[in-house]
Design goal:
About 12% of the residues have low confidence. The chain folds into two domains: 40 residues, no CATH class; 112 residues, Jelly Rolls (Sandwich), CATH 2.60.120. With 153 residues, it is mainly β.
């Protein structure tokens, strides 16, 4: 499944779903696009682990003037706590602004999200965060990859 492609000004299109494998020349092209204010999406990926229980994980510490366009969540390894294992997506001070209660124990794969407050034009520098909550604080495994799609304006 391709979440996002990037077409460079040279016409070459690449899958940039896995942000760890973006080519160096793509990063230069992305920088050029941002500088020209072309409204292209940027993708930010973080991994939330079972050991992050109760600790907000920063997805993005933005400069002011950006729009959040959406999220995707892939459960790489299901979380195995004996109670509920839930993931929220939000901002500092409003942990559930975009999504609340994603069940990260239900099995590997892409999750269906119902996102609220999207798109969200923001003029501040508030961190965008993911918060994992293990009801009984006893999980020994679990990884969810969170993808944030945004643009700078």
């Amino acid at each position: 499944m391709t979440l996002r492609t990037f077409t460079a000004p040279t016409g070459v299109t690449r899958d940039v779903t896995d942000t760890e494998n973006i080519y160096a020349e793509d990063m230069n092209d992305i920088g050029a696009i941002i500088n020209n204010l072309t409204p292209e999406y940027l993708v930010r990926k973080i991994s939330v682990l079972f050991s992050d229980d109760g600790v907000p994980v920063s997805i993005l510490t933005p400069a002011s003037g950006y729009v959040l366009w959406g999220f995707q969540v892939e459960i790489v390894t299901p979380f195995d706590g004996s109670g509920t294992d839930l993931l929220d997506l939000g901002i500092t001070g409003a942990a559930t602004r975009y999504e609340t209660g994603i069940d990260v124990s239900a099995g590997a794969g892409w999750q269906t999200l119902t996102l609220a407050n999207i798109p969200d034009r923001r003029a501040d520098t508030t961190d965008v965060e993911a918060l994992y909550t293990d009801q009984n604080s006893d999980a020994t495994a679990g990884q969810a990859d969170v993808y944030l799609f945004y643009s700078i304006h």
